[in-house]
Amino acid sequence: MFADFIKSLLQDNPAPLTDGDARIPLTALLVRIARSDNDYAASEMIRIEQIAQTRFGLSKTEAARLRADAEQFESEAPDTVRFTRAIKDAVPYEDRIGVVEALWEVALADGERDQDEDALIRLAANLLGVNDRDSALARQRVSATS
Predict the structure, then answer these.
(1) What distances in angstroms separate CA 46 from CA 17, 108, 139, 141, one per listed residue?
(2) What is the pLDDT along the chain (146 residues), one digit of tens a residue?
(3) Beta strand segments in the chain, E
C-alpha cells in the first residue's frame, strides 16, 4: 500500500513533502518511538492521535484513521536511519524540532521514561539534523508540561 510512497521518500533528492504527504511518515515515526519499548500502550496511541489532531487540524476520527495508517506504514518502512534521513531532507528544520517534541510527548505518554525510547529519540533527533541543544530544549519543554 505504501511501497511507492516509501520509495519516493528514499530517493537521493526527495521532493519536499506537502502537509498532506508529511502526515503519514511523521506520524509513523511517532508510532516507531511508541513501539520501541515493546509496550505500545493505549496512552501512547491516544497521545499520537492528539498530536495529529493539533498538528494537522484533524477531527478525532481522522486522527484515529491517520494513526492506523501510520502503524501500517511504520511496519513497512525501512530502518530508522534511512526513514528519518528521508524526513530530514523533506521537512524544514523548525518543523523537525516540533517532531522531536512530539516524539518526547509520545515517549512520556505512558508515564514512564524508557531507555529504549530515549535512545531511539536521541538517534532520531540526530538523524533529523536537530542539534543537541534544540533536542534537549524540546525534551525539557515536554517534561515541563507532562
Answers:
(1) 25, 12, 19, 20
(2) 455 555 555 555 655 555 556 788 889 899 999 998 888 999 999 999 999 999 889 999 999 999 999 999 888 876 787 778 767 877 889 989 998 999 999 988 888 888 888 899 999 999 999 999 999 999 999 988 86
(3) none
As given in the structure block, the three cell numbers for residue 141 are 519543554
Joined grid coordinates for residue 13: 533528492
Judge if pTM exceeds 0.70. Answer: yes
Q: How far apart are the first and last CA of the chain?
A: 36
Count the neighbouring beta carbons within 10 Å of the beta carbon of residue 84.
24
Report the topology of domain 20-145. TerB-like (1.10.3680)
